[in-house]
Structures are given as structure tokens and as C-alpha cells.
Amino acid sequence: MADPSHGPASFWTQANALLRKNVIYQRRNMKTNILLIAFPFILCLLLVLLQAFVNSQLDKPSNNCGCACVNKTGNGQCEQVCGLEYSDLDQAGTCSIPNPPEWPPLLQIPAPEYRAVRTDFIPFTDLPNESCRSSGSCPATFLFTGNNQSLGEILAGNMITSSFTLNASDIVDSIATNVSGSASEPETNNFLDPAFVSSEPIYNVQSQCSSNSTFSVSLQQSFIELQEVVSCVQGLHLWRNSSSEINDELYKGYRKGNLERKINEIIAAYDFLNSNGNSFNVNIWYNSTYKDDAGQTSIALVRVPRSVNLASNAYLQFSRGPGTKMIFEFLKEMPKPQTKVRLDLSSLLGTLFFTWVILGLFPVILTSLVYEKQQKLRIMMKMHGLGDGPYWMISYAYFLLLSLIYMLSFVIFGSVIGLKFFTMNDYSLQFVFYFIFINLQISLAFLVAAMFSNIKTASVIGYICVFGTGLLGGFLFQFFIQDTSFPRGWIIVMELYPGFSLYRGLYEFSEASFTGNYLGTHGMRWGDLSNSMNGMKEVLIIMVVEWLVVLLVAYYIDQVVSSGSGKSPLFFLQNFRKKRPSIRRPSLQRQGSKVFVQMDKPDVSQEREKVEQLLLEPNSSHAIIVDNLKKVYPGKDGNPAKFAVRGLSLALPRGECFGMLGPNGAGKTTFISMMIGLTKPTSGTAYVDGLDILTHMEGIYTSMGVCPQHDLLWETLTGREHLLFYGRLKNLKGSALTQAVEESLRSVNLFNGGVADKQAGKYSGGMKRRLSVAISLIGDPKVVYMDEPSTGLDPASRNNLWNVVKRAKQDRAIILTTHSMEEAEVLCDRLGIFVDGSLQCIGNPKELKGRYGGSYVFTMTTSPDHEEDVEKMVRHLSPNANKIYLLSGTQKFELPKHDIRIADVFQAVENAKSKFTVFAWGLADTTLEDVFIKVARGAQAFNVWS
Questions:
Q1: Could you give all domains of the chain from N- to C-terminal order, each with its CATH number?
Q2: Each residue of 368-405: b (16+ CB within 10 Å) or e?
């Protein structure tokens, strides 16, 4: 069936075989793959539809610049005109503003309840008492320091005026000329200063407030008239000895988002450094820690220019006299065109939805790996020569390719339909982020797959992780990110969970695209990673490290737990240990074997001695040598240990088919499981072509074929594709591979009628069984294990299969288990009857029948009246005859062979026929089934008695 000169398949040959099989398998599952790729498309389309609906609502007139019908020509016909003058405050933000309004420059004044006071955590006693907060009379504090305190005191005094000068004709100029400020929070633009439209008053900072220092003013700005309250607040300037004292005081009074904590805010702090009459140097501290309702730092304007102007004017007055000033008249925004109200849903909702989309690949990869484990397809491939290296490389590369196609389709489609989440952020940064995460996700799937053996359980757990991660990220983790008071170290600890790393990265993309769209700037770029507030850099580092660590741990666990019977936890150190020889000499002290030797039958003892002799030979012609192999399952819940295999010794030369007979539970399948690497022996070992099953199983797999008890097939692959795959694993190539496959299909009668190209899932049970036998024989394996190969076959197919096995015996050893005595007699050169874990007898069928079948079975049927005559005739032939059956004239007797001659039986029957009517009679030799029953009953009775 194959060229016997071919050697083991190389790494790349195995990888090529697995790759071809995977490509075919995925092509057959094209609908599933298309649905998988379509999932992000559907989600993107859903977001587009939602975006279109939101835009349609935002495009309503009530949300856009106000319009009116104006008669410009006086002819009675009006013209639709839009502008600020026809808009309310809600509409004004979308209007064209060619000439933005001028707003007076203001200071950021702390609200009365936050102004600096004496506390237990700030040591300075020059601050006011905390009781002023209840009355709202706390002064607003400036802090000063520098190398020259006297100069600093002069400059501080020049900054604060002693009165408020009101010009009723120009309120804006009055506010700008005086030192004014507001506790309102600034916004991202200054078209409409919140200080003049909020409930907060305008504060005028004076050195001392009079009793009547609060009044109302009217302010006309552009199209609106504003009523504003101007209130005096005392400005308190305090000297500190150094900038470090100021830093300490500012930090302890810092607003951290926790309103229960005492907050001490100052207007500004000034360090005049080495300023003197000839030079002016100053550092200014200012407060930019205001937050929006979600706890996120606002990207807003800060009221800093007025602080700079105050310091500059104070120095000018010091050096040039009190009448010298740099007048700071107003602030104004840049002009803007008419805009529309827009809300980018992809950025707003993208973090949660896209987390689900990307993590949706995890259960797909996980269930695919667990499916191969549950169906034992992985170990089936391994037993036919597929190494762990090619399996990991091709499987990982396949999942990586699938993930890349999935993510590229997702990003490209999202960009084509215009989702800002994708279009505004740098594509190279997105690619790096997604590439690293999908590698981490694949590695994690390999690691988690080692913990599951059931695909349904793995699928449920996988999807719980997907949706649970998204929900926890959106409703818990995100709040920790936004809360600047939450320790950054704990954020990093939480990001060690890969799902939160993904969520944090998507959150940063979302924030960047949302802000960029709102402000008309760009999204995230590589340069933004250096921003301490941006968590993308730490996420990328965490994911790269976890990817490598998880991949190594997953491979290690796979080697120890998942690969057949597993390896020693210290298997990676085996190259540093002295290699043990392929065939070792038997130990002088073989624990526990004496008991079995004393109870063994002569044929079993002879087999054991033969094994011991073969182990002493440097080169053995025997393909399989089993040396005192044992398997004991530990007792549980108080039950005794279970001896599945009790010290089995066996030697099989090439060209022999050895049949294992035994009742259910005798240990036959356990023995084969140890020989093919599924189970580790408790003690003892076996050698296959000189290789030890304990240390060289990888080498044994390259020359081994297995027909398991249950068919291990891919439902969507055809019979031909199965044989092509396993043939390639056995290093068959080109015409030799094609010829071997064709011959295999013909030999098991799967060639005609298009059966070879029919998917295995549509095969009958018998067809699957024949395909499993063909797989076990493809590629000329030197050793073949067949566990009940003819189960479920019709008589014609069974006879055909027997012929295949007979031809396959040449130059290879076959171990076959069966419950069919006929099959055992036809196929097996030698038989061993296995009972309760031990070998009871061994020999060819003829020897066993001769050894355990020392009687004939004589049967005769007459009328009931002549039953005694028949028994007298049999007693005359053999006094030791034993009646074993009697029913309505039909009797059966066991006749010891040494008591009778067959000719005497025939003569006695002829004499009986002349005396009474004989309806039927027969004389049969002992069958193999009789031998099996006799040995099994005898062994079981002995075990019960003992």
C-alpha cells in the first residue's frame, strides 16, 4: 500500500498536511465563517442606522440656527433669513458667528465653600477661620513667594484694587478694568462665556469689601441682554517662604473629586524668583482641575491670561509708576461657520459594543480547540505522527489569519461607512493595538482550552466572559478610569485582566475620536501616547508581556496535561539529563512480579521468560515487547484500588497478528491506551521498534497506526480527504500518496459509487468503521492497534475487512481486540485471553482448543420415550460422560476425548437407529468460544475464591 522506504514526516511535511486539512475543513464550514465575519458588519450597520436616526432628530429646526421670514425689500414678500438674532440660547451654538462677542477677561475664583481656610492638614495660621464658609464671607487667596519678599509684597499689593469703578455706559470695560472673576466652569469655547449666563455672580476682587458691595448690571452682548450680579470678594495675598511650601499647600487642598474631603482652593500662586528693578521673572500656578458630570477632566479653556496680566501690570506699576497699565480689554473666540448639532454614536457607544465584537472571537477559537479535544481528534492526529510543533504553528497561524480578516473587515467596513471611531484615529496605531490583542486572545484561548473537555461548557463560559467583560468594563472599570482620585496602580492591576486591557484601549480611542470630532481636531496619534493621562502606552506594554507569558504557559500546560497521557512537569529539563537507552536490561528486583509468576500458567510464564530474554538482546526482531506492564487506578471514597492491568509481559514479532480476548472490563482497552500513549502505566514499560513508550512516544507515533474503538472522524471531510491527510502525516507524497489512498479505498470497499468523496458525517456506521481501519493502515505503519475493528459490519463487509487485515500482516505487528471468536480464529496468529487485568493463557487457536477443549459434544434428538435408551448408549461409550442439556427428547453430553473413538460413536448411533427412531444427532469438537468461556469462568471463580 505504500513505499516502505519512506521515513518519518518532517516538521514542514506535517505542517503542510495539517494546513491542507484545515483549509478543506474551513471551506466546508464557509457559511459559519461568513456569519462570523458578518457579525461586525451587522453591528456597524446598526450603528449607522442609529446614527442616521439621531441625526434626523438633531436636524430638526428646534436644534439648528433660528430662522425668520424678513421683508427686506418692502414689497410685502418675505425672505427666509437665519442668524443669531433669530435664535434662542439652545439654537445659538449652531449659528454662523462671523464676529464673536467680546467678553471681559476673568480670573478663576473659587466658590465660597471651597476657598482656602485654616485646616488640620495645612499648617499656616494666616488663613481665615473655617467659620467664614457658613456665612459665605471667606476671602479669595493669592499666594506669593520669591527671592525678594519686599518686592513681592509690593507687587502683590499692586495686583489687587481697593475699589470697583463702574462705567454704566460700558459694563464690559468696567469688568475688564477691575480685577474680576467667576466660579463658573469654563467650556471648550468662549462664544458664550458661562460666567455671564450661569447663576454664579461676577466677583470683583478688592483689598477690602464695603458693606454695600453687591449690585446688578445689564449687559448687552450680540443678540442677547444679560442681567448679572456683581459681588465683591476680599482678595487676600499671603507670602510663603518657598515654592515647595506653595506646592505642598496646593496639593493638600487639591480638588480630587471627593466632595466630602475638605478642599482649599486659591485663585493663583506667584513665584517672582529673582525679579528685581531691572528684570522680571515669574512662575504662575493656576487651577485647571474642574470636572464634568461624568467625573472626566474637561477639555476646556482655562482662565489664565488675566492672571498673567495682573502680574505684568503689577511690575509695570512698580517700575514705571501707578498710572502705567497694559489694558486687557477683552477675550473673543475665532469666527465660526454655521454648523449642525452632531452626536457621534460610534465613539460614544463604541467602547462597549466593540469590546463585545472583538471578544466575540474568543469563544469561537476556544470551542474549536475544545471540539478537537472532546472528539479526540487532536490525539488521533498525534498518534498518526503529527507533532506538537506543527499543530501549534498551523493552528495558531490559522486563528491569527481568521482574526486578522475579522478585524480588518471590521475596521475597513467601519471606515467606509464613516464611523468616526475608526476614521479619526491613526490607522497604524489601531493596527498595532488590534494585532497585539488578537494574539493575546488566541494565546489565552489555548490556555483556557486545556481546562475544558466539553464543548458546551467551554462555549457557555466563553460567552459569559465576553458579555461579562463588556458590562463590567462599561459599568465599573470605566468609572475607575475617569475618577482621577482612584489610584493609578490599581488601574494597572485591573488591566492585567486582558478584557480590561482591551476595554481601556478602546476607551482611549473612543475618547480621542469623540473629542476630536467635537473640537474639529484629529483623534489619537502616536505622539499622544506620551501624555500621562493617556493609558494606551501602558495597555500596549501589558498586552505584549501577557501575550508572551500566556503563550508559554499555554504550551507548557498543553504538554503536561493535554497531549495524550501527558509529560512530566519537568519535561523541559530532559535534555539536560542523561538519556536512558531505548531497551534497558530488566531490573534485578522487580517488585510485585513474583506473585504473578507463581500463579501464571505455563504458557504465560514461558511468554514472560521470553520477554526477559529479548530484553537482554541488543537488537530484537520483535516489533513489540511488553515488560511487566501494570495499571492501577487509586481507590476513591473508601473503595479499594482497581487493578486494570496486572503485570502483563508480551512479545510480538513482525508479521504477527495478536488477538486479545476477554470479557468487558478485563483491561484490554486500558492496555491499548497505555501502548498508544493515552494513559501512563503505573509501573513497567513497553518497547515498540526498540523505543520506550515512557520516553520516546513521539518517535513511536511516526510508525504507528490506530483503529480506535469509536470512530474519530471529521464530519465534514470525505473519506478520501481523511486518507490524504493521514497519508501525508506518514510522509507519503505525490503519486505514492495518490496510489496509497486509492488502494486503501478499494481495499475497504469505499471507492465505488462516489462513496470516497462523500462527507464522513453521511457515512453509515459500517462505512465509518471501514474508513477507520483504512486510516490505521495508511502509510505502512510498523505497528497497528485495532480495537474491535469489525463492530457494526455486515457479514460481507466483515469478510472483506478480514482479507484486508490478513494482507496487512506482512512485516508489521498487529494487536487486535475482538468479541468475535470467528474473527479471532480467522485473523490472529496467536491469542491471549485476558481476565480481570491479567493474561490467563496464550497460544494459537489450535493450541488453545487442544489445551482447554479436551471433550466432544454429542447431541441426539429422539422421542421422550427413548431418553433413557440414549443415555444408556452414551454411558456405554464413555462412563465419564457428562449430561449438559435435556429438553423434550434432545440431549447433550460432553465426552472426554481420551475415552472414545469417533468410529465407535458412529457405530453406536447406527445400532441405535435400528432400535428406535433418531430424529437428529451430531458430534462436535470444542470451539474457541467454549475455550473462552471455560477460561473466563475459571479465572473469575478463582479471583472470587481468592
A1: 64-95 (no CATH), 107-320 (no CATH), 345-562 (no CATH), 854-925 (3.30.70.1150)
A2: bbbbbbbbbebbbbbbbbbbbebbbbbbbebbbebbee
* Residue listed under C-alpha cell 517700575: 319
Give the cell for residue 627.
515488560
503: part of which helix (H) or strand (E)?
helix 498-519
Q: Strand 704-707 to strand 783-787: parallel, antiparallel, or no bridges (unpaired)?
A: parallel
Output phi, psi for 698, to 5 deg: -60, -40
What is the DSSP code string of 762-806? GS-HHHHHHHHHHHHHTT--SEEEEESTTTT--HHHHHHHHHHHH
CB atoms within 10 A of CB 517: 20
What is the number of other CB atoms lying within 10 angstroms of the CB of residue 497? 16
Distance CA 264, CA 247 (A): 13
Angle at 633 between CA 632 and CA 634, to 5 degrees: 110
At residue 145, φ and ψ (nearest 5 deg) are -160, 175
Cβ atoms of 441 and 359 within 8 Å: the answer is: yes
- Asked if residues 354 and 421 have their Cβ atoms less than 8 Å apart, the reply is yes
- Cell numbers at 7, concatenated: 521515513
Query: Which ranges of 578-630 does DSSP label H, i.e. alpha helix?
Result: 593-599, 602-616
Task: Report angle CA 907, 913, 914 to the nearest 5 degrees.
Answer: 100
Per-residue model confidence as pLDDT tens digits over 788-842: 888 878 888 888 888 888 888 887 899 999 888 888 888 888 988 888 888 888 8
Return the closest-CA partner of residue 231 out of 249, 259, 209, 262: 209
The answer to whether 361 touches 403, Cβ cutoff 8 Å, is yes
Q: Model confidence at 443, in pLDDT bands (50, 70, 90)?
A: very high
Position 298 scores a pLDDT of 47
Q: Are 906 and 828 in contact (CB under 8 A)?
A: no
Confidence of residue 76 (pLDDT cuts 50, 70, 90): low
Q: What gap in Å lies between CA 916 and CA 911, rounded to an integer?
A: 9
Question: Can you give the pTM of this predicted structure?
Answer: 0.69
Grid coordinates given for 326: 497694559
- Rounded Cα gap, residues 800 and 554, in angstroms: 45
Here the cell at position 55 is: 441625526
